[in-house]
Amino acid sequence: MAAIQRRGGSRRRASAEINVVPYIDVMLVLLVIFMVAAPIVNPAVVDLPSVANATPQQQTPPIIVTVHEDGELTARGKDNAGNAFERKLDKRGLIDFVHQRQNENPDQPVVIAADRSVKYEAVLDVMSVLKADGVKRVGLMVKSK
Fold first, then answer.
1. Rounded to whole angstroms, how far apart are CA atoms 77 and 110?
2. pLDDT tens-digit map of 40-70
3. Is 28 within the bounds of a domain?
4. The domain that contains 128 carries what CATH number?
5. Domain tally, the chain
6. For an engineered disulfide with 93, which of 51, 70, 89, 130 has Cβ 3.0 to 4.6 Å away?
7. For the segment 83-99, what is each residue's pLDDT rounded down to a tens digit?
8. Cα–Cα distance between 112 and 89 in angstroms, integer?
9. pTM exceeding the 0.85 threshold for the entire prediction
């Protein structure tokens, strides 16, 4: 029975490590395939239509509604003749004024401007009143730096 005994008396344990060499081989083969295939693929060419006889659209100047810190509203802009106007209005007067202006120019946008000291709720209130009353193009004016 002495012949069956192992030399050194120690047992070999199974290794818990993953052999990553086959994965690296596969990745290198894929890399070579993509490097060979990349120059073969032709980029798509997009043919954009050309505009030869287009007339430039006349942009209607917006109605600028300013919300002041005390809640007062001011509407300013230009009329059809190009004359500048500025009016102090309440919310109902603003809606009537905007509808009157948009009856003349249906695509005329309304831009809401406010000072930093004005609460955002007041600006949103004016915007929601205009939107609820059917004004289509309402936006916020931002100050560029």
1. 10
2. 877 777 777 777 766 666 677 888 999 988 8
3. no
4. 3.30.420.270
5. 1
6. 89
7. 888 889 888 888 888 88
8. 14
9. no
